[in-house]
Amino acid sequence: MNHLITSTEIGTIKAFKNIPGLIYENLSDNVITFTNNKKSIDNENYCILSTDDNENIYIGVLKDSTVTKILYGSREADISKWYSIDIETPVNKDNIIMSKENLYIKYPENSYILNKQNNKKTIYKGNFLAITSSEVLSLENGKLQRTKLN
User: Fold this and answer.
1) Is 9 in contact with 27 (CB distance < 8 Å)?
2) Other CB atoms closer than 10 Å to residue 56's CB: what's the count?
3) Are residue 80 and residue 121 in the same domain, yes or no?
4) Shared-domain flag, residues 86 and 108
5) If you ran DSSP here, which 8-state letter would residue 116 be given?
6) Which residue, of 17, 47, 53, 123, has the greatest Cβ tally within 10 A?
7) How many domains does the chain have?
8) Do 9 and 63 reside in the same domain of the chain?
9) If you ran DSSP here, which 8-state letter would residue 94 be given?
10) What is the DSSP letter of 141?
11) How many CB atoms lie within 10 A of CB 148?
12) Cβ atoms 148, 134 nearer than 8 A
């Protein structure tokens, strides 16, 4: 039988696309738990950000409730073997956006998106709405703005 979620306090939950199982923040015990392999990570200073099509997990390293670094790797590998992406200016985890190909950091106070794969910045006008594979969508003075990604 697979590991069941038994905590009464659950934070972020993410599923894997091609394999059974979940990863979730067990807030009762301060651990990040994998349901199918009974693995867990102390999450006192971590938060779950996302999973991708290659079954990688993305976890934010927290300091003062903001993400300062992103760790990612296979759920099968030990977290000490995962890759690391530094974030120069700490951000709220809601400002980290995953697409199929890229990882973006949104800086709404400065109206730009930073692609962490190529370090290219895209400046947009108005309030951020969404990101597609080719553009940033924003709303300025009631009008939809489309800004091509750099």
Assistant:
1) yes
2) 17
3) no
4) no
5) T
6) 47
7) 2
8) yes
9) G
10) T
11) 8
12) yes
Q: Which two tokens stand for residue 19?
A: 């394999």
- Residue 54 phi/psi, 5° resolution? -95, 15
Looking at the fold, whether 5 and 70 belong to one and the same domain comes out as: yes
What are the CB-based long-range contacts (under 8 Å, 24+) for 118-123? Answer: 120/149, 120/150, 121/150, 122/147, 122/148, 122/149, 122/150, 123/147
pLDDT per residue as tens digits for the range 108-125: 999 999 999 899 999 999
- Domain extent at residue 11: 1-91
Do the beta carbons of residue 40 and residue 31 sit within 8 Å? yes
Distance CA 38, CA 33 (A): 7
pLDDT at residue 143 tops 80: yes
CA atoms within 13 A on the CB side of 122: 23
Cα distance between residue 46 and residue 132, in whole Å: 27
- Cβ distance 43 to 54 under 8 Å? no
Structure tokens at 64: 């003062």
Tokens at 23, concatenated: 């990863």
Going by C-beta distance under 8 Å and a sequence separation of 6 or more, which residues neighbour residue 123? Answer: 111, 112, 147
Q: Which residue has the tokens 């807030």?
A: 27
Dist CA 139 CA 147 (whole Å): 11
Residue-wise pLDDT tens digits, 74-115: 888 888 899 999 998 999 999 999 987 899 999 999 999 999
